Amino acid sequence: MCSDSILYICDLVGFIHCFNARTGKHFWQYDTKSSLWNAVYYADGKVFVGNDNGDLFVLRHTPTPETIDDLDPTATDLKAARAFRRARYKAIETKYLLAKIEFDAPIRSTVSVANGVLFVASEKTLYAIGKR
């Protein structure tokens, strides 16, 4: 998915990545803590992706994302490296995560939008979320 030369992709192990589509520069990655079997979906300035825990993540899109590395090259031990990584994920959540919505079952299909309605299919239920 690409918007404003910004590419959002996810991988099977559960990370959402933000890249510059033209240069390949990696801005940040966010761990959803569960497998991602679907594609990232972009609509209305937001990025949507669901995971195997049944969580739907809604992230803010910005045309100029901040580079937030999660590896500390100065860390001298594992404890310090983990603390740095936790702080960086918190920074990503604060800046980009708009919502984490829990559903009844894994979300393995890509969400979609039609006529202002967000469709989310879990393994049990199809949800239509929008204004009446």
Question: Can you walk me through this structure?
Answer:
- The protein is mainly beta and 132 residues long.
- The chain has one domain (2-129): Lipocalin, CATH 2.40.128.630.
- The protein is 14% helix and 39% strand.
- It contains one helix and eleven strands; from the N terminus they run βββββββαββββ.
- It has a four-stranded antiparallel sheet with strand order 1-2-3-4, with helices on one face. The protein has a four-stranded antiparallel sheet with strand order 5-6-7-8. It has a three-stranded antiparallel sheet with strand order 9-10-11, with no helix packed on it.
- It starts with a strand and ends with a strand.
- The mean pLDDT is 90.
The number of helical elements comes to 1
How helical, in percent, are the residues?
10-25%
Query: What is the CATH level 1 assignment?
Result: Mainly Beta
Low-confidence stretches: none
Terminal CA distance: 28 Å
How does the major sheet shape up? Answer: 4 strands, antiparallel
Strand order of the largest sheet: 1-2-3-4
CATH topology: Lipocalin
* Helix and strand sequence: EEEEEEEHEEEE
Based on the structure given, which CATH architecture is correct? Beta Barrel
**Shape field:** globular
* Main structural class: mainly beta
